[in-house]
Specification:
Layout (H helix, E strand, L loop, with lengths): L2 E5 L2 E3 L5 E8 L7 E7 L6 E6 L6 E3 L7 E6 L4 E6 L8 E8 L9 E2 L3 E5 L2
Parallel strand pairs: 2-11
Antiparallel strand pairs: 1-3, 3-8, 4-5, 4-9, 5-6, 7-8, 9-10, 9-11
């Protein structure tokens, strides 16, 4: 079964940090661009960050630039999203997705999401 599984979410105070993981099973992530998305209650899903299959190219939403870092470890078949200086507005369900064609193309596989709550 081909799937992506996110982990690492939780409750954190403003200014804190979390590291999300996106692990693949049933297929290798080596040839896929991986994107992180988030959806807050009552809002549309938005792209947060993406990393190319080689890891040589990354992009970030303006709202997270300088605070979030995406990385990948193909040996572990896992992509990470390091989130620092978290703000209440970062509260959302975070999803990872895999694209066989690149960050700006359609995504083939999606995870179930992990909740991130930033609150004091």
């Amino acid at each position: 079964q081909l799937q992506l599984v996110e982990s690492g979410g939780g409750l954190v105070q403003p200014g804190g940090s979390l590291r999300l993981s996106c692990a693949a099973s049933g297929f290798t992530l080596d040839y896929y661009a991986i994107g992180w998305f988030r959806q807050a209650p009552g809002k549309e899903r938005e792209g947060v960050s993406c990393i190319s299959s080689s890891g040589g190219s990354t992009n970030y939403a303006d709202s997270v630039k300088g605070r979030f870092t995406i990385s990948r470890d193909n040996a572990k078949n896992t992509v990470y999203l390091q989130m620092n200086s978290l703000k209440p507005e970062d509260t959302a369900v975070y999803y990872c997705a895999a694209s066989n064609y690149g960050c700006d193309e359609g995504y083939d596989y999606w995870g179930q999401g992990t909740q991130v709550t930033v609150s004091s």
